[in-house]
Amino acid sequence: MAVAWIGNRETLVERAAAHAAALLGSSRCPVFSLDTDIHGTRAAIALAERVGAAYDHADGAAVSRETALFTDKGAMTVAPGETRRRADVVVIVGELPQIHHEFVGELSATVPDLSAKNQREIFLVGSNGASAPPLSNGRTATLLSCGEAGLGATLAALRTQCRGRQTSQPVSNFDDFAKALAAAHFPVFLFSGDATEGLALEMLQGLIADLNRKSRASGLHLPASENGWGSALASTWMTGFPLRTGFARGFPEFDPWRYDVARMIAAGEADLHLRISSSIVQRQKKRNRMALIALAKTQKPVVGAAVTIAIGEAGVDHEAVVYSSRTGSLRSIDARAASELPSAATIIRLVASHVSTEAALPC
Which of 12, 123, 321, 323 has the fewest Cβ atoms surrounding its Cβ within 10 A? Predict the structure, then answer.
């Protein structure tokens, strides 16, 4: 079953795709928001190149923070499998997204292969009241905090004390942490850009670098969004740049501020928004005459959208290739409840087939 609407009127998918292509062809500054699998991302970037669009993840801020850590500063990281085998001390940095809680629970329930310890020691860096993912057997993570100080300040204090210097606000339970580090063979810090600011991510990498002067330590990146990180990787191998890339001048340009799609919409720079997401799209407060094309898993037209086309959810309605944080790589997944809803890639390619190759590029 495939359903499409132009405005509030139901229509054929082919006709809706042609109308969407016409809107893209007449747009002077189209922007795309992605929350889709690898095939959907590749199709969207190919379409963006044809119509001169900028693209970003639907939750671009978190993915952008994680991208900036690797593009601007660099990071020492390890694969999830290596963490399972070797990490005898696990340090959770800030609050992690819900999708990673099961993995942390597994770490607390298993023993590293290459360690004589019976269980891993687990710490949590954060302010008072910070909560860790549920651990096995009712265990709790040892909190490392500086009261109500933010995560960046706490990491700075922790780094300072690890170097043997004094701080105005000592980190709680630091002696236990220092003792664990002294006995550890391979401590690993779990981090995400979901609720962690860029400076805190940099401070964490500084701490890991300091520890590596005398022993070994590393970080495990658990992305804020698996779809977002998969799209960032796909964009990098297709254009040489991660998300927040635009084709306004006919070639890919990466600028994390200029091509922040949320900012472009808020500033009134964009005149057409193509949003690709299997979740229901809620139209944002209308600020200008920007048109919306919504590709979403929906049974009714998205309010305010010029074109709505129903798509399936990757891994549910159709098989897909996605990024998996459990393996740190791409993997194929089967459809859990296959349906007739088309994939995002199928609809985007259909739209692209109607885009005139002679359409003038946006300025």
Answer: 12
Given a cut of 70, whether residue 281 has pLDDT beyond it is no
What's the whole-number mean pLDDT along residues 66-70? 93
Q: What is the 3-state secondary structure (H, E, C) of the chain?
A: CCCEEECCEEECHHHHHHHHHHHHHHCCCEEEEEECCHHHHHHHHHHHHHHCCEEEECCHHHHHHHHHHHHHHCCCECCHHHHHHHCCEEEEECCCCHHHHHHHHHHHHCCCCCCCCCCCEEEEECCCCCCCCCCHHHCCCEEECCCCCCHHHHHHHHHHHHCCCCCCCCCCCHHHHHHHHHHCCCEEEEECCCCCCHHHHHHHHHHHHHHCCCCCCEEEECCCCHHHHHHHHHHHHHHCCCCCEECCCCCCEECCCCCCHHHHHHCCCCCEEEEEECCCCCCCCCCCCCEEEEEECCCCCCCCCCEEEECCCECCCECEEEEECCCCEEEEECCCCCCCCCCHHHHHHHHHHHCCCCCCCCC
pLDDT band at 361 (very low <50, low <70, confident <90, very high): very low
Model confidence at 135: pLDDT above 60: yes
pLDDT for 181-223, tens place per residue? 999 999 999 999 887 788 899 999 999 999 999 899 999 999 9
Both tokens of residue 106? 């597994």
Distance CA 344, CA 279 (A): 12
- For residue 288, name the pLDDT band (cuts at 50, 70, 90): low
